[in-house]
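S.,

Sequence below, as promised.
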Amino acid sequence: MKLLLTKELGRLAKWLRILGFDVEYFSENKASSLIIQALREDRAIITRNHHLPKSRGVRIITIESEILKEQIPEVLKGLKIKPDQAAMFTRCIICNVELAEIEKEKVKDKVPEYVFKTQENFITCPKCQRIYWAGTHWGNVQQTLDEIK
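The prediction came back faster than expected:
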């Protein structure tokens, strides 16, 4: 499922990427450009904008809540999808690019010393070069998901 989130849903975009969804973030104000991008890329639009014109061939989910922990279930219910544990942490939260494994030795000078000593597995974004590892945030994500179920 490919998604296109409008500018007021930036935090939600990052969370959906953490969950493994292909999420593009649309920061412009032009509804016509938003709809064209959704059609070109076969993406569902997720928005809080109640005035967005309905368009044939584009699925639009309007989010009611301003609270992130309420927005995630709204999206999942609206699209009739569930998070897949195997897909979590597979996309860059900044670029939306699929992450790739990287050898531990290649990140030695790119991560804090403590992280290098305590972690064995690292992944990286081929686009922005950001390095990720299974730190405490992985557990925090699971805790948040447990809270919103």
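The chain has a mean pLDDT of 91.

Coffee later?
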